[in-house]
């Protein structure tokens, strides 16, 4: 605490009336979710190479010489082929990443001959970085890309389903329902961000959304744990007041955790290069929205559903462990 004096700026105790504004927040969330879903179809997601299909090749120089990845990316970007990905890899002969070998992925526009596009890319790279060797040229068809897209969506659905089961067994069905609605809210709005800013939707973006799901669930569990404790402690307090109390008690923890994660991701977006920019932006937005959904999506749904406090008030009886008596 002494090492970071900014923590002292956060009040130790707050008394915000979150439930009072839950209706307005619900209207805002519904409007944004509908707009995000419509945007996924019109104009649609900006599919990357993983889901649209394209070509890949290895670009290498003799051992000891370094390939400038930024210059390779700029050379291919100048051809207006869409999404371009360049990543350094280990050499095949030595299995050591000495900076002399990279893998290049790029889109092949529809209606254009694949061989001509590959030759055009090779000439652009050679004219920019000098003499290099090309190997491992392959083309990913639309069928394989469609299967990857379906698998990515299936992974998101399975993750949300497992989170629902976890919350259901740990708490009660209404808690699980509120958590899942919050997760769906976060995922849909993240898709909306991808559409608005025309970020490349690739496997990296699927990984970012899965990470958002995990972070949002972690924040929701913290709030629900405190809510369950307060429901046992304040048996006669109205449910809305208990929710407000629980949210205020966990607010400082939520702010510190969220701000810390956003600062790390901001540094990653600034210095991680073009390949990690979209990933970082999606994660930052997901963390902010996940914090919002824990306050104004998950908890208000519990208020609408109601809670059977009798079940929550049943404390587990302690088990006495002792040595068996000898006959």
TrEMBL record:
Domain of life, source organism: Bacteria
Cellular component, GO, one term: plasma membrane
Membrane topology, from the record: Multi-pass membrane protein
Domain Protein export membrane protein SecD/SecF C-terminal per the UniProt entry, residue ranges: 122-306
Membrane spanning stretches: 21-45, 148-168, 175-197, 203-224, 255-273, 279-307
UniProt KW keywords: Cell membrane, Membrane, Protein transport, Translocation, Transmembrane, Transmembrane helix, Transport
Gene Ontology MF terms in the entry: protein-transporting ATPase activity
Entry keyword annotation includes Membrane: yes
Subcellular location: Cell membrane
Gene3D superfamilies: Multidrug efflux transporter AcrB transmembrane domain
SUPFAM superfamilies in alphabetical order: Multidrug efflux transporter AcrB transmembrane domain (SSF82866)
NCBIfam families: 2A0604s01, transloc_SecF
Assembly and binders: Forms a complex with SecD. Part of the essential Sec protein translocation apparatus which comprises SecA, SecYEG and auxiliary proteins SecDF-YajC and YidC.
Function according to Swiss-Prot or TrEMBL: Part of the Sec protein translocase complex. Interacts with the SecYEG preprotein conducting channel. SecDF uses the proton motive force (PMF) to complete protein translocation after the ATP-dependent function of SecA.
Protein's name according to its UniProt entry: Protein-export membrane protein SecF
Organism: Brevundimonas aurantiaca
